[in-house]
Automatic annotation (TrEMBL):
It comes from the Eukaryota. PROSITE patterns: RGS. SUPFAM superfamilies: Regulator of G-protein signaling, RGS (SSF48097). This is Regulator of G protein signaling 17. It comes from Seriola lalandi dorsalis. Residues 83-199 form the RGS domain. Residues 1-28 are annotated as: Disordered. PANTHER family: REGULATOR OF G PROTEIN SIGNALING (PTHR10845), REGULATOR OF G-PROTEIN SIGNALING 17 (PTHR10845:SF196).
Length: 209
């Protein structure tokens, strides 16, 4: 008959299992331990596995929330009032300014300026030709519903350059629209509820923190 195991020996075996060194990476782990024959969640290994899973889930959610909560700082919003150029360099600044221009039905001025900025970066002749013609059809042609306000001299120069487009062919027109936005739209933007509400919100956030 097989020798019976005493209670003392059983406790020694259980203690030896608990104090055993951790499994090396890549080695299979038993499905159960001597203290949890059913493999339930009370097993120390199962508890450790669940804790690691919860930590990983929390880390992922924190990353998502951080990405969703990215907003311009108070200092950045204040800097826009000091510099039109600084606002245009900021993605958030351009978006909030575009929202204001949309309320005044002059959003196309900013879109034209941005399209010219993209064109200036191009070096491929075929891409330059395509983008230059798209800009013309969208913002310069008198047949376009999004036509921007350019004087006749600048418009005539564009018409002449269209025969041989270059990445700088709209430079003078872009400067004219930039000046228009800076002198005309920008002061109204700073006094608008769009900007003032954002500024007040950033100040409240700073006080709360």
């Amino acid at each position: 008959m097989p020798r019976s195991v005493s209670g003392v020996e059983m406790r020694k075996r259980q203690a030896a299992h608990i104090e055993a060194p951790p499994q090396a990476p890549g080695q299979p782990r038993p499905n159960t331990c001597c203290l949890c024959w059913c493999g339930c969640c009370k097993c120390l290994w199962n508890e450790d596995r669940m804790e690691r899973s919860e930590r990983q889930t929390c880390t992922k959610m924190d990353s998502i929330e951080t990405a969703e909560e990215q907003h311009p700082s108070l200092d950045e919003v204040l800097s826009w009032a000091r510099s039109f150029e600084m606002m245009l360099r900021s993605l958030e600044g351009r978006e909030i300014f575009r929202e204001f221009l949309r309320s005044e039905y002059s959003e196309d001025n900013l879109l034209f300026w941005l399209a010219c900025e993209e064109l200036k970066k191009e070096t491929n002749p075929s891409v330059v030709d395509e983008k230059a013609r798209i800009i013309y059809e969208d913002y310069v042609s008198i047949l376009s519903p999004k036509e921007v306000s350019l004087d006749s001299r600048v418009r005539e120069g564009i018409n002449q350059n269209l025969a041989e487009p270059s990445n700088l062919m709209y430079e003078e027109a872009q400067l004219q629209i930039y000046t228009l936005m800076h002198r005309d739209s920008f002061p109204r933007f700073l006094n608008s509820s769009v900007y003032r509400d954002l500024l007040a919100n950033r100040r409240r956030t700073c006080l709360d923190t």
